[in-house]
UniProtKB/TrEMBL annotation:
Record protein name field: Ribosomal RNA small subunit methyltransferase E
Domain Ribosomal RNA small subunit methyltransferase E methyltransferase: 75-223
Alphabetical list of InterPro entries matching this protein: Alpha/beta_knot_MTases, PUA-like_sf, RsmE, RsmE_MTase_dom, tRNA_m1G_MTases_N
Pfam families: Methyltrans_RNA
E.C. number: 2.1.1.193
Predominant subcellular localization, coarse grouping: cytoplasm
Residue ranges the record marks as coiled coil: none
Length: 234
């Protein structure tokens, strides 16, 4: 039986833990209907997790730690997605799925053709945490504040390799060199604006394709991260 899993800011070195988080206690008590003696998994979001067992439920929930272990589910390369802000439901889907695929961080970009200019960081961070819980990851990817394309380029200068997805470019990831960190740039629904691709190419970024078909922005982001985390995990 697969145990329910929660990521919480807890010190897992203790033999007994107290869960105060109201959202989590509500899930344990009212959604999953757990009772005294029921086991589940708690992760500290820093790469450690523990199997625990409910011992009391009186407002807060107390659990005993049964065992602890390191969670090693991360890609060998840190893949950061620089994605133009999309419509709310599309961007939320991107955050959820790239988290499941192993992304290191997501940086929303305000580009020339971005339609929606804002994001709800608290909502996206919650989606990322729940996706990490569901997929068995030991860490939650960072969801950054939106930045301009120029600011994203400055941030991405720390990456060993940066890739821009563009229709008709050489197929990714066959050409991509091995790298400890890789940035992946995905434009908005209407594509990159005039001069933006040239700006990224001038920075030495690799132009990469995902096949002959025209993909939606959210599809390109998800597929690209999936291929990158798989390619650099070999």
């Amino acid at each position: 039986m697969r145990l329910h899993r929660f990521i919480l800011d807890l010190d897992l070195s203790a033999d007994q833990l107290v869960i105060f988080d109201r959202e989590i206690t509500n899930q344990i008590r009212n959604v999953f209907r757990m009772e005294t003696g029921d086991p589940f998994i708690v992760c500290d979001g820093k790469g450690m997790e523990a199997t625990v067992q409910v011992v009391s439920d009186e407002g807060t929930i107390r659990v005993n730690v049964i065992d602890r272990r390191v969670v090693d589910m991360e890609s060998a390369a840190k893949v950061t997605l620089y994605c133009a802000v999309l419509k709310r439901e599309h961007f939320e889907l991107v955050v959820q799925k790239v988290t499941e695929c192993g992304v290191f961080a997501v940086v929303p970009i305000i580009s020339a053709r971005t339609v929606k200019l804002g994001v709800r960081l608290d909502r996206l961070q919650k989606i990322a945490r729940e996706a990490s819980e569901q997929s068995g990851r030991g860490v939650v990817p960072e969801i950054c504040k939106p930045v301009s394309l120029a600011q994203a380029v400055v941030q991405a200068s720390d990456n060993e390799t940066n890739v821009v997805f563009e229709l008709g470019a050489p197929l990714f990831p066959a050409f991509a060199p091995a790298a400890a960190s890789i940035g992946m740039f995905v434009g908005p629904e209407g594509g990159w604006g005039d001069g933006e691709v040239e700006q990224l190419r001038a920075e030495g970024y690799h132009m990469a394709g995902l096949g002959p078909r025209v993909l939606r922005a959210e599809t390109a982001a998800i597929v690209g991260v999936f291929l990158a985390t798989g390619r650099f995990n070999e």
